[in-house]
Description:
Order of helices and strands: EEHEEHHH
Largest sheet: 2 strands, antiparallel
Strand content: 5-15%
Low-confidence stretches: 15-21
Number of strands: 4
Shape: elongated
Strand order of the largest sheet: 1-2
Radius of gyration: 21 Å
Mean pLDDT: 83
Structural class: alpha+beta
Number of domains: 1
Helix content: 40-55%
Number of helices: 4
Bound molecules: zinc ion
Distance between the termini: 25 Å
Amino acid sequence: MITTHSHEGKDYYLLNASAAAEAHPCCGVGKTLRGGECDRSGEIEFQGLLLCEPHAEQLQAQDRTDLLEGIVSSLSLCLSSIPLRKNKELSVMLRAQRAQATRELAHAREDLRRATGGKEEAL
Length: 123
Ligand SMILES: [Zn+2]
């Protein structure tokens, strides 16, 4: 069976042989929440899936960005609590942690931007 895959505006004709697919498993990006299709072979394991290198980098950066966004927003939520605001020492500590997480988030977003080549759907 011959299938047509469109990638970067070019059409590739691939022979769909299951034996070859087993020897070189395809990138599993389609099984992630991100979805999509990818014809490259899976080389790097990420969260139980085999992904091609660009997708693995992209999803790792995405994962880190999501995690840090969660940390920043929960710290902000803590800081908006009135009983906590009365505890000056804890407030100062949480503010410092939020500032650090915000800086790390900026780096993670930069890594993500690089991994996607400046575009959200570059791959
Ligand atoms: Zn891929």
